[in-house]
Amino acid sequence: MNRREFIAIAGGAVVWPAIGRAQMAGRMPVIGVLVLGNPPPELFLTALRDGLRGAGYVDGQNIRIELRNARGQTDRLAENAAELVALKVDVIVTFQTPPASAALQATREIPIVMSGAGDPVGTGLVASLPRPGGNVTGTSAGGVEIAGKSVELVRELLPNARRFAVLANENDGFTRPYLAEIRRMAAIAGLDVEVVMTRPAAPLEPAFETMTSRRAEAVIVQGSLLRPEVGAMAAKHRLPALSTLKILPSAGGLMSYAASFSDLHREAAVYVDKILKGAKPADLPVGFPSKFELVLNMRAAKELGLAIPEAFLLRADEVIE
User: Fold this and answer.
1) What is the pLDDT of residue 151?
2) Do 94 and 34 meet the contact criterion of CB atoms below 8 Å apart?
3) Distance between CA atoms of 92 and 58, rounded to whole angstroms?
4) Are 153 and 164 in contact (CB under 8 A)?
5) Rounded CA gap, 91 and 103, in Å?
6) What does DSSP say about strands 64-69 and 292-297: parallel, antiparallel, or unpaired?
7) Domain count for the chain
8) Which domain holds residue 99?
């Protein structure tokens, strides 16, 4: 688990002789970026810009980036997406499922490159991973598989636990397949699941009070709900917290397990490059991660009184002391 490798974009994409709408029009290509804002988008933007730079694009020199950040307000995504469509951007890049869904609802013509979508097929973003079939392509985070793995990690670290909670996003199209897989794996593991639904910008205290009142012994947090306060709230309520983004253990939560999102975001830039050069999204297979990273906050584990097995520590890609 020391190196992050991704399945290469399979097959040859159809590339038209033209070099793209912007180049043909003699203007600088415009890349729209649409994010929910949970987690804060800085790491996504840094990795995306790095990937674009590696492909020869620099914001303000030979491309222009137009960012729209809903700041955790899911209902603003439609408005933000419509703004990017009105600007006639050449490509829209999204992070997570809700922005990708909003972009697709806003346009069936402008190419959309999703980065780290949870379940692109199950949420209707693409027809299939090898043949997206529409104006959307990009990278999947393997979210359904990760959801199941999170349950396994709860069982492994808390062998005596009988009940855990899931803090789920009621406004995320990925929530349904996400919860279905968690419930399936919980049944296999003999664990009870308490689902607590909330919204990205909603206060956290009521949700955590509900979880503790229902005697949850751990919580799995859906990625589109993550913001720094989640880790502190989990620590306050003495709940071991797991999620898919490193922001959680970095902010006091117990652990994250997921694909390397930095690699996913850089890979999204490869899709942007291909599309700007004339490739069609329908012909670019969706990339799927083949390696994942485990981040463990040992300080949080000690405060929770958890004994972490040595073998588990050896599997961790990063340990926060």
Assistant:
1) 95
2) yes
3) 16
4) no
5) 10
6) unpaired
7) 2
8) 21-142+259-292
Grade residue 313 by pLDDT with cuts at 50, 70 and 90.
very high
| Angstrom distance (rounded) from CA 136 to CA 81 | 14
Amino acid at 188: I
Rounded alpha-carbon distances, angstroms, from residue 128 to 146, 221, 279:
19, 27, 18
- 173 and 87 share one domain: no
Tokens 């990063």 locate to: 318
Q: How confident is the model at residue 17, as a pLDDT?
A: 34
CA distance 204 to 200: 9
* Cβ–Cβ under 8 Å, residues 153 and 299: no
> Are residues 44 and 75 located together in one domain of the fold?
yes
Average pLDDT, the chain: 90
Q: Which helix (H) or strand (E) holds 104?
A: helix 97-106
230-240 pLDDT, tens digit each? 999 999 999 99
Q: Please tell me the least confidently modeled range out of 17-26, 104-113, 207-216, 299-308.
A: 17-26
Q: What is this structure's pTM? A: 0.85
Tokens of 292: 């994942």
